[in-house]
Amino acid sequence: MINYTFYCNRSDSGTNITPNYNHKKDNITTNPYEVSNVCTYALPGTFTAKAIVERGSLAAETRVTVTVSPATGSIDLKVADIKFYDENAQEITTIPANKIVIVDATVVNQGTAATGRDFKVKWFIDGAEVNYAMQPQLAAGETAEKFMFCAYLWNTPAGGTHTIQFQADADNQIPETNETNNSLSKTVTIGVPIQ
Asked: Same domain, yes or no, for 35 and 85?
């Protein structure tokens, strides 16, 4: 049986297995074993990808240098809209009391370059964080898929006025040309048409 361990950035020549590996497959007979899309390098730099192969008491390692160049073009994530839907995914214009409402944000990369990595999105109601997710990377000009990572199921209260806020790239991991359009808020009143 063979054990394979992969690291995205480990430059030493050792064959000891450390807990910070990026992919591991143990007790298989596949030889050679290949993986893809294990490493995502979001920032420019030079990295050392490494694989360790163990068979019985034998161990070997191999390394390859990976150079990531700065992205060409620009990235600009924009939260273009927030819409509300009923449980049948039909858009609604009035928020009902005591119901489950789908709140969905439209996020578009209006830049000329892909984001190059996934990014965190967050929902807030009346200033309190209520949900977060990882939005898969977006190509230049791409809009995030509807009802997926930018959606939130809101169990509406009996009444009142509430501010719904959505943030794209909530942890500022994507270098953008415009960081001021990553958030959008809507204030709604239960039982009153949305303005």
From this structure: no
Q: How far apart are CA 166 and CA 129, in angstroms?
A: 10
Domain boundary among 41, 68, 95: 68
Is residue 57 located within the same domain as residue 87? no
- Hey, what are 155's tokens? 């169990």
Structure confidence at residue 159 (pLDDT)? 96
- Name the token pair of 75: 């990235």
Task: Give the domain extent around 46.
Answer: 2-68
Closest CA to 78 of 173, 126, 143, 122: 143
Positions of E strands within 16-114: 23-28, 45-55, 58-68, 77-85, 100-109
Classify residue 9 as left (phi > 0), alpha (psi -120 to 50) or beta. beta
Q: Which residue has the higher pLDDT, 129 or 38?
A: 129
Distance (Å, whole) CA 21 – CA 94: 49
DSSP 3-state assignment of 86? Answer: coil
At 40 the pLDDT is 83
- Helix, strand and coil percent figures for the chain, each rounded to 5: 0, 45, 55
Q: How many CB atoms lie within 10 A of CB 142?
A: 15
